[in-house]
Amino acid sequence: MILNSPLDMHLHLRDGEMLGQVGKLSAESFSGAVIMPNLVPPVDRLDMVHDYRGRIESAIGDHVFDPFMTLFFREYSMEELEAAKPHIIGIKLYPAGATTNSEAGVKAIDAAEPTIRRMEELGIPLLIHGETHGFVMDREKEFLEIYRHLATTFPKLRITMEHITTADAVKLLDEYENLFATVTLQHLLITLDDVAGGMLNPHLFCKPIAKRPEDRAALLDAALKAHPKLMFGSDSAPHPRHKKECCGCAAGVFTAPIALQVLADLFTKNGCAENLQAFISDNAQRIYGVTPPAKKVKLVQRPFDVPATYGDVDPVVPMYAGETIAWSIESIDA
Amino acid sequence: MILNSPLDMHLHLRDGEMLGQVGKLSAESFSGAVIMPNLVPPVDRLDMVHDYRGRIESAIGDHVFDPFMTLFFREYSMEELEAAKPHIIGIKLYPAGATTNSEAGVKAIDAAEPTIRRMEELGIPLLIHGETHGFVMDREKEFLEIYRHLATTFPKLRITMEHITTADAVKLLDEYENLFATVTLQHLLITLDDVAGGMLNPHLFCKPIAKRPEDRAALLDAALKAHPKLMFGSDSAPHPRHKKECCGCAAGVFTAPIALQVLADLFTKNGCAENLQAFISDNAQRIYGVTPPAKKVKLVQRPFDVPATYGDVDPVVPMYAGETIAWSIESIDA
Q1: Phi-psi region of A316 (alpha: psi -120 to 50; beta: other; left: phi over 0)
Q2: Which Pfam families does this one have (chains A, B) (predicted)?
Q3: Is residue B69 assigned to a domain?
């Protein structure tokens, strides 16, 4: 199987030593990725975008890889947005003020609307972490009201529902022309059962939390069909091992180095191998109007032993750590 | 507030060094407890009941405390049951064969029915861990079909639904005269949000897993009203700290040493202090027809600093470890 210019439309590369550890792992096999701006402090000025992009380019070395940069959402003036537009793929919004009550959630979004309107005018996509502060299994579903509100209020705004986890979110894709979505690898594979059904598994704990079997089924079905509005976005998030296994662990699953192999297996096993190209790159190119650098990743059905950790400085535990997966990367031409 | 002869109707005391560590913590403030038989190997012969009771009595020393012993469910003959009856309060069934499909679950129960019929004839209560092997949030709800089946097939059998966690189970209490239930401290207090809504909290991970806010509300309402068929059963389960905080942690919350204080706070805050006596002892005495030794536990509203761990050999982390709770035990007269 050959994948052309695979894209990861939702990626955390962090900064400093961790960026040094994980940057290459994505840049090796992916042609480009949407880089999340939630550093400390957040990337919310154009000069910070330039600087962060520079640090990413140093970290990935010679790899052919386009970091699609994002700004962290705040109030931006028209001038700021116009200046930023050529350098970013979109702006990422985490609606901290949204609450269980969806009315209140929309209200919290109100304050953001002048900036969102400017983004609509300029054609800058809005990427959203769509969860309320409600009960953990209901957070995404409750947030769908806010997606409806934004999709109707800003009909020309391109909105990406990031890392969707529910059947209801999949349905919403077909209701509004301007709604798109990313989905992670783990949400195609696991449910809450894998996190807390047997022993507690901190390495599969992520936000949004994995949901019910019928949710996973709907996500997998949409991915396997290469739903034209759905894109792969790993949300791959490296946390040092000690922050995952200690009491009270951080949320995030590290999938960057194994995502393509597992997707090849998943799509092939389900008889949908021909749809993976759209899911992993073509949909995203069309939706965002981007052309990533050419890269051919050849995958073969040959066992691959996933390392227990990646990185020397602050080892990161990947999904399937220490297990054998069925597909391997044979070669990468860039 | 004075509690007379408080009872813990579902308790894990383990064995060996752990029994030595935790036995006294229950025996100090409780007047008696239903002792779970799931040792390795399980307590499933009368001589094992006698031996385990002996080890418990050694471990608790001078404390006035009745260990109400149970047998682990297997096929038992009439002779075995008749011999055991004076020495046990009931038989604990964990239906390992029960599956998602409730039909199959009932079928798996079929094989157990000759023994269950003998228990009904002899008046030996059946205590059940009522979960199927389905999706983690549905396991108890799916099992309710099996409770219905047993309650109607064996109308004179006293059945205790152990550690119920759902609003549906609370409702079932009123549908069948011969159904009773225990509820833990943690299921009156937490939901899945507390386990996995923020950081992952292994110390609040237990089976059955904490459910939705409306489930907790129904359980708390029934407890505060001292529903006549509901009893306190802590399911307090000591796991050494290293088994709770490692990757892939074991299920169980250790509440024995703080349960009475937290219940006093909970019932008082909700204006139901007068109902705690029924919930903590009187209901159980009536339901099981037992008379525990006299013990007066005086509780006062005075801050208590919960230790980070209990025990020296293999420290156990209690619920509220390192936090301050509002009520303390002032004195115990036995």
Answers
A1: beta
A2: Amidohydro_2 (PF04909)
A3: yes
ipTM of the complex: 0.87
Contact at 8 Å (CB) between B245 and A247? yes
Q: Which of A190, A247, A249, A253 to mutate to test the interface with B (most CBs of B within 10 A)?
A: A247
Structure tokens at B222: 């029934």
Q: Give yes or no: A314 in active site.
A: no
In this structure, is residue B332 part of a structural domain?
Answer: no
User: Residue A43's domain spans which residues?
Assistant: 2-333
Instruction: Provide the annotated binding site of A for Zn(2+).
Output: 10, 12, 92, 129, 163, 235
In this structure, chain A runs to a length of 334
Q: Is residue B245, in this structure, part of any structural domain at all?
A: yes
Angstrom CA distances, B104 to A214, A300, B96, stand at 21, 41, 12
The residue whose two tokens read 């995952």 is A244
Contacts of A157 (CB under 8 A, 6+ apart): A116, A119, A120, A125, A126, A150, A151, A178
- Give the rounded distance of the alpha carbon of B167 from its chain centre: 18
pLDDT one-digit tens code per residue, A190-238: 999 999 998 888 888 888 999 999 999 999 999 999 999 999 999 998 8
pLDDT at A119 exceeding the cut of 90:
yes
What is the number of structural domains in chain A?
1
Contacts of A247 in chain B (CB under 8 A): 201-203, 244-245
Please report, for the domain that includes residue B221, its CATH number: 3.20.20.140
C-beta of residue B274 within 8 angstroms of C-beta of residue B313: no
pLDDT tens profile B72-121: 999 999 999 999 999 999 999 988 755 444 455 556 788 899 999 999 99
A268-294 tens-digit pLDDT:
999 999 999 999 999 999 999 999 999
Instruction: State the DSSP code for B310.
Output: B
Dump pLDDT digits (tens) for A67-82: 999 999 999 999 999 9
Quickly tell me which residue has 């529902």 as its tokens. Answer: A161
Task: Name the amino acid, one letter, at A39.
Answer: L
